[in-house]
Structures are given as C-alpha cells and as structure tokens.
Give the backbone structure.
Amino acid sequence: MRVLLDECLPRQLARHLPGHDVTTVQREGWAGTRNGALLRLAAAAGVEAFVTADRGVEFQQKVAGLPFGVVTLRAASNDLDDLRPLMPGTLAALDALRPGVLVRVPPEGR
C-alpha cells in the first residue's frame, strides 16, 4: 500500500510500517501545504493511505469523498517514542483501510 506520512509525524516512522511503500510530505516536496490542497495532491499521486496526528483532519476535511483512507494517530506527543507503541494498531488499520474511511489509532475509548 502507498502510504503518505503527514509532516507532523517524524520521518523515521516510515521504517515502522514494513510491507508498505511509505513516503513523506517532505519527501514529496509538499511541506507547508494546507490540508485540503495536500489531500488533493495525495489523491493525484495515487496515495492509498494518509497517516497523520492532526486530529483536525476529520473535522475540517471531507474524508468520505477521498480516494484513499486516513489513519489518525492519537498519542501523547508526535515524538517517535510516543508513536512507536501505536504501530501494531496502525499496521492493522492499514490492512483493513478503505477509501473514504477514517480510522483512529487507538480507537475511541481507549
């Protein structure tokens, strides 16, 4: 699966998503691009999943209309040490992800 990591996440997170073709907003040259424009660029580039820690994406963007799924990571911070424990759940979310669907890791209530 072609995965795009948002610029709010550490680039090193890519190595914790084995089996996926992971790129970053920075690597694509899209750093500083606002969410709506970023999601359009991602769609045009054939991204299949967008992984972010930006909780505003689900409220500010129409995820249901996207040609890819979105995974939002909910950790204490964007530090790699806080995000690493979420990787098993993230990998499971990516395996089941469908276009236009948003998945929170961990899920609500946990």
